[in-house]
Structure formats: structure tokens, C-alpha cells
Amino acid sequence: MKDKIIKKATDMFLKLGFKSVTMDDIASEMCISKKTIYKYFSNKEKLIEEGTEVVHKKIHLLMDNIVAQNHNAIVENFQIREMFKQMFQSFDQSPAYQLKKHYPEIYEKTIANEMEDFNQILRLNIVKGINEGLYRENLDIENYIKFYYTLIFNINENTMLEKDAHELEVKALEYHIRAMATLAGIIELEKHLKNPII
To answer: Does domain 49-194 have CATH number 1.10.357.10?
Structure first.
């Protein structure tokens, strides 16, 4: 029952907004009593916290699946960006923007978890791109991770509409790849921009 509540509540939070969905709304939607929800979660914040952890695990799993497909580093980057688009395209408001605005403590904790995974994926992608000859050999990897991370997370926390956030993220990714790319990398990037592998 706990997992079902988390799933339903998280879907509702993402679609309708973290602030606007009440415990009553969740109970009504699931045809259960509010008391049943409080049996597992002491308050709404606890439910949001556990829900964001479930989403975090799902994202991590999906990213691992994309990496396992063994695309070149540039295609892999775009595949990961597309995965985020597919996950959140049905939502009007950016989940990160909403969380930061209404539940800053949960947002900070979520971002700390995301940062760790995101940095690891970026690091592996840059090393892969260097080995494939698509990224330059002399890159300051840690700083490039920081630059790109700062761009993406600033877009997410300051852009209200999910559609706008996604468009900016794709532009940020192109900017990030162009900054690192060799001539072969630029050719691969241009090829992908003309004919994306989805």
C-alpha cells in the first residue's frame, strides 16, 4: 500500500503541483481514507520526500540503461536529455522549479543526490568522448562538469514551464559539446542535430 500511495501521490504532485495537491486529494483519488495515508507518512513533506527519492532512483536506472546501449558519447548525451523530456513532458510546470519554490529543504536534499549521479554520468561521458576522439584530450574534466551542471540546474530551478526548460537544456547541451569537441566531434554533433537518433 505504501508504494501505491507514493506512486499515485508523486504522479499527482508532478502533474498538478506540489503545493496544490492535498492529502485529501490523494485519499480521494485512491478511494482510501486519509488515515491510511497518515499510517505510512507523518505529513505531506515526508510523502513528497519519499516520492522524490523514487523518481531519483528511476532516473538513475534509466540513465544506466542508456549508457549500457553503448552509443558514442555525443549520441549518449542527447539520449539522456531525451529521456528527461519523455519523463516530464506531460507536466506544465518544471518539478525542480516547484520544489525549490514551495519545499526548499526537500529541494536541497534532492539536488544533492542528483548532483552526485549527474556528475558521475558526465565524468564517464567526457572520458568516453575523449577515448573516441570526439572530445579534446586536454580537457579540464572537473571544470567542464561544473560548467554544464551549473547551466542545467540554473535552467531547471529558474524556468517555470517544463517545455521552456527542455528547449533551453538542449541548447545548453549543444553549447557544452561544442566547447569540448574535436573536429570529428563537431561533425558528429552536426550530424546528430540534423538527424537525431531517438
So the answer is: yes
